Description:
Blueprint: H1 26-38, E1 40-46, E2 55-67, E3 70-77, E4 82-87, E5 91-100, H2 109-112, E6 114-121, H3 127-136, E7 144-149, H4 153-159, H5 171-174, E8 176-178, H6 181-193
Antiparallel strand pairs: 1-2, 1-5, 2-3, 3-4, 6-7, 6-8
Amino acid sequence: MPIQDLDESTSLTYSSLQLPSRQVAPLVMRGLVNAINQKCRIEVDYVSLSNPDGEGRIIQPHIFIKTGLRWHLRAFDEKHREFRDLVLSRFGGELELLDKATHQGEQDQGWNTFVNIILAPDPRLSSAQKSVLEQDYQMQNGQLVIETRAALAQYLLQEMQVNFKYRDKSPEAQQLVLVNESDIKAGYLVVKEDLGRIPVNKVYWFYLPYLQ
């Protein structure tokens, strides 16, 4: 039985971690839901760490995403001329529905492309330690292959606590490493050179800023 299914057992005595919730105004949610359902452009107020004072933006949303601790809105950002993930709790003010969207979810290449993330135990671990992780994740031939949307790859790696940019000095703390790192970086370079030649089996690294 997968561990995530254990809470469905009525006979299991357990406790779960309570994480802090982020608040979203009902008025904001109604506006965003309407924009998605009606496939409309919408003008919003949005704050970020790079712009904490906030700014008005026009976006074309197509789906909500739950990424562990946070909820995001996937939308075409007209200011940056690309599809982006926007943190749901950072919307505020009054939202205004505009005319019909010109960019739909079908045009979001990062969302519609699936990639394989290949994880393995840190090679610095002993054989016995590697076996523990292989059992934890039911690895095949010492590897865990996870298919995910390219736009969600960064969240998957965050949830798996895999960060190859700053590899932990302790292999017991690092535990997992990204095996196909070179393929991913190669895909990133191709995208940067020519946005019209995005390889189907590569991750779009311009969606993964914390790994660059």
